[in-house]
Design a protein that fits this description.
The protein is of the alpha/beta class. 45% of the residues lie in helices and 18% in strands. It has a seven-stranded parallel sheet, with helices on both faces. β10, α10 and β11 form a beta-alpha-beta unit. α4 runs parallel beside α5. It is elongated.
Amino acid sequence: MKGKKVLGLLLATVMTASLLAGCSTGNKAEEPAAPAETETPAEEEGADAVDEAAEATGGTTEGLKIGLSVYDLANPYFVSVANGAQAKCDELGIELIIDDPKSDAAAQVTALDNFITMEVDAIIVCPLDTAACESVVKEAKDKGIAVISQSSCTETHDVWVSADEYNMGYVCGDGAADWIVEKYGADAEITCAVLCWDQISTQIARGDGMEDAIAEKCPNAKIIRQDANTTAQGQSVTDSLLQANPDLQVIVCLNDAGGIGAYSAVQAAGKDNDDFYIGSIDATDEAKAQIQKGGAYKATVDLIPFENGRIDVELAVQLINGETLDDTYVIPAQLVTAEDL
């Protein structure tokens, strides 16, 4: 392996941070929404990376079979990843088998075992539990199956493709910190909530990034950290936080699902206004639609998941064809606000 390659235009925070490089047949995801007329710079750069990978791909794709296991297709981010992978496989005539473990690490390990039994040519896995996946991923590698580790990083893999978890969190938190500084000043004693998911190591890093970015620019901020990984959790946790902390003015969330839930609670509390800030990660259509309306929901972080899925397939094909690739491919993270939309 050659090290790492950066795909697209990375933000300064991404470029300066270090990467922790050690780090069954499913249902096809729903069709992606029609693309916007104007792409963000990150989307344009991601598309360029896919085109470059396609030009570099040698050999044939006829008869190839790839297994893809995501975290959970209830999460719009992974729906987009799956749809991107499916679109590229359709273009290349590759059979794609999509597994949805529904956030169950044991079910995902079973699916990976099934992929090996099916004699797939490559596996793309978003590991829920990297330690639990390790033995079955190693078995796949020993049988000559190419392995792409997506998002979370397994110890054994051919290529790891991901945005850096800490830095995507940092980009989200930095947007909130800039809003605080501009509106209230760097010394403001403001109450902020970080809605994360401290059950998975990668998600812990994302929460750390959000928290650190706010603390660095706003040292007097009071930061409350709690778990909320779904829309329902985002709403219930925010309801409780607003009751216990009536001065709460900033909420940053590890994903758009949690952000949408938090926004519902903020609306119900009558605080959907310019004096409240909600930021999240994933840049789903639902989140962007709320941001465009103005009000409390002010930003999301774009990780170009559809292009990410396409890139995964292109890299898998190159590995199948015996090409030597870099160990790590970094996907850009970019803050998206109403002005960008």
